[in-house]
Amino acid sequence: MKILVIGLGYIGLPTSIMFANHGQEVVGVDVSERVVKSLNNGTIHIEEPGLQEELDRAIEVGNFRASMQAEEADAFIISVPTPNNNDALKSCDLSYVKSAVVSILPYLKKGNTVIIESTIAPRTTEDVVKPILEEAGFIVGKDIFLVHCPERVLPGQIIHELIYNNRIIGGMTEACTEAGKKVYGVFVKGELISAKASTAEMSKLMENTYRDVNIALANELAKISADLGINAIDVIDMANKHPRVNLHFPGPGVGGHCLAVDPYFIAAASPDYSPLIQQARAINTSMPSCIVAQVKTMMERVGGKKIAIFGLTYKGDIDDIRESPANEIWEMLIKETSYEIVAYDPHVNIPAVEKNSEIATANADLLLILADHAEFKTLNMDSISNMNQQIVFDTKNIANELATAETYIHMGNLSEISRESVESQILAV
Q1: DSSP for residue 126
Q2: pLDDT tens sequence across 391-425
Q3: Sheet holding 407-410: strands in order across?
Q4: FRET label pair with 112: which of 184, 204, 304, 337, CA 20 to 30 Å apart?
Q5: Of the listed 90, 258, 306, 396, which one is catalytic?
Q6: pTM of this prediction?
Q7: Active-site residue identified among 204, 306, 315, 396
């Protein structure tokens, strides 16, 4: 089987390589000349454990190549970005999906399978993609088999999860679903779950919305506990000893291409019936501002001049800064304060990010930890010995060995910032 994958990002590239390493001829298409050249030269452009070795295998056997142009194939997989529109509820921007579908029309022939892997708003496959194919003269379910099969993988474990996770195969008809199963059955060892396309779309969105709502509850708990002088982490630890309770932990916000995006697609599709989803989004998007406010208070209290930020990605041990609250906090601190801000992230390779942790912490007054990279979990007092003041704000609650620092604040004891701030104001009066 020949498979053409459009979009060679964090999902499209691993998916392409998995098919190639399971005996299929794969052509990966991307609009970036840099990406295409890099892949054809044998080098991946994203950080994902084991992916480089998988690409080496695929190229060695001759089953994968990258291109900027679509061509004929048996199956077409569309894995392009679906960002938010700039409207009130940040609805789903389908421009990349529609463009990708249009781009393959000249190469479609009867019997082909078209699969949308991109995360899309409810009813997109039926109301948007299907009409494009029909206008081109195809009968969906007879001439062309149309499927929505959302990805469900965790960055850092993508290769394993692509193979072993269950996959929802949402066909426009039963024949479409069976065609989709035939494609993914090449390498997926998890269950191939039959569904309608719209059900598959909503299922993927609700998986991430569920997590977003629960994180919002934890973040709201952190704010309430700070107001009442209670340690939120202690509350969560004790509450989770209940056999039917599993509270999430608070943090600096929610990021990435799923949790920070998908709930909006549901809310925009049904605004009158999604108040809880909308409120959860509002809580989580407020967290960067909350962190910045706490940082300002801490710096004012100690007369600080320099902040060292550790971590800019939305989660640990990856290089992805899409929708990252850490990145947002960095930008806010630069824009809203006059402090010297130095960001260090061993996984992010951009000019503005410091490459040396010791340079980042040199003469700093505050260490702000915003990502749970493995490198940060082993930080100790020697790691911050060159700071001007050893004040740590660990928003991920991971650097346990820094608990003996001059001041160690995490998302559980935020009340200490507020309390000392109020006390200092009283003394000043």
Answers
A1: I
A2: 999 999 999 999 999 999 999 999 888 555 434 33
A3: 340-344, 306-310, 366-369, 391-394, 407-410
A4: 204
A5: 258
A6: 0.90
A7: 204
